[in-house]
Amino acid sequence: MVIASLRNTVLLVLVALLLPTPMMAQDGGSLSLIGHVKQDGKPVEGAEVKIFQETERLKYRTTNTSGDFKATLDLDKEYILSVSRPGSTTKTLAVLTEVPESQKGKPYEQHVDIDLTVLRDNPKGKKVWEESTGSVLYKENFGFMLVDQDIAAIKRAKELERKRLEALAKAQEEAERRRLEAERLAKEKQEQERLRLLELGKEQARLDSIAQAKEDSLAAVQLAIQKEMERREKERLRQQEDAAFQAKLDSIALADSLAADKQRKELERQEALKKAELEAAKRQQYIKDSIASAEAAEREAERLAALKAKEREKFLEDSIASAEAAEREAERLAALKAKEREKFLEDSIASAERAQKEAEKQALADAKAREKALKDSLDAVEKAKREAEKLAIQQAKEREKAIQDSLAAEAAAKKEAQRLAAQKAKEREKFVQDSIAAAIKEQKRLEEEARIKAAEEARIKAEEEKRARAEEERKQQEEAARKAKEEQERILAEKAERERLEAERIAAEEKAKKEEAERKKKEEEARIEALRASNTFIEEVNEEQTKTVTKTITVVNGVKNTYMKTVHNWGGIYCTMNGTDITEELYNQQLKAAREEMPKGYFDKKN
Q1: Global pTM?
Q2: What percent of the chain has pLDDT over 90?
């Protein structure tokens, strides 16, 4: 189990080392971003280009000698691209690669120009470390293009416009519903009026028939009908006026609602603009923090990866050592157990032999005892016979009786001897049977022990074969582990060689960059020194009776300035620059700056 686990661990380590690093997928189309970086109108070589996105690893690029770089981005994602170089403000570019469904699945290209600027101070006196250079996004009928707006503000504006259109459509739908409801009510009223008129007609016909029958009350009936019709007509007109007034109220309420909605949307738009400005500021800070966090995370990931590699290597070595120690312990215990089994078997055999010898000795002693008892019985019979004969000779008078007694005694003795002989025979037969049974039992025991011994030997042999197979498997696994370790060492050596070459390349690039910076620095110093060659600093001191006037004329990079300093005997000091009053502190600062712009050795030559 330990060896199998170790083998699985080695395989996992090899797979982890050989797996390729994730790359940007290209399914569903892509956008090739082709950039050109310049500063003061000249291409910038070696500028660092970073591309990051929430679900992707940070990508790095550097511009070539022409200041160009290229990056392939997936569609339907949002990226942040930053371009930086030492001494310049980092420029960021937001890229939104969302395109309509009908335009997906094909490659796009977009060229962007990024102008770097020297670090400067903002109105608050703080360094401008980072600023946005716009956004790249897709527009209908135009394709991808560079815009000055922030993508977050564009998305929020789109969302507000969508909400505005939805609210407008909802208001129009509500107005249409009210119009249809008003038309339905009007139709219902017209139908009611038609039915009312129809009823009136029926009523008129009925009244006419009644009037025909009752000519006397015709005038009164007609007057009543006319009044009823006038009343109903007034009621209808009143209802129409009420309906018109209600419709007017509804239209006014709708207009008020639309005006309030428009005012609310204007307030929302202003609030959205404010939020957009805050979001833009937060976005800039977020970009800066994200870049710093990404760099820190990358360094931490490299450190953890190195630490994890060391831990895996130590775990591998410890696992191999532990497996070897466990195997040695198992072999020691197996050998000890085999020795204990062998000693137990030898002790069992010796004990069985001792028991067998004791049984044979006891059987021999019993046989001797039985023989002695039989001999003693025969001797006793013979002695009794002799005593009887002696008694028969000595007692003549009782001869017959002695003979009879002797015969009786002889018969009794014979009978007793026969009884004893039969008893002894039974005892001997039982002893023989018991001995045979004991021998059979002992034989069975010995056969069982032999069978157990054979089984134990077979088991020991099987264990030895198993150990041999385990030893062979262990050797194979050790060979596999050795090969895996050699392969891992080879991979690590190759990786170390690649890292060494990469470090040498980076060091060479750094050295080249440093040499180039030194060269540019020297060229800049030479250029400045060349500019300073024509600079002059002329100072004249005129001491008068009540004051001392110092006139200084400087020419720095083609710019001439005249400074005057008047020191009165009573302590007053007045300074001017090109005829304009300035403070003595500014006067000293200007002259100090002018002195620093003079060529090397200018004042030494003058003296």
Answers
A1: 0.29
A2: 16
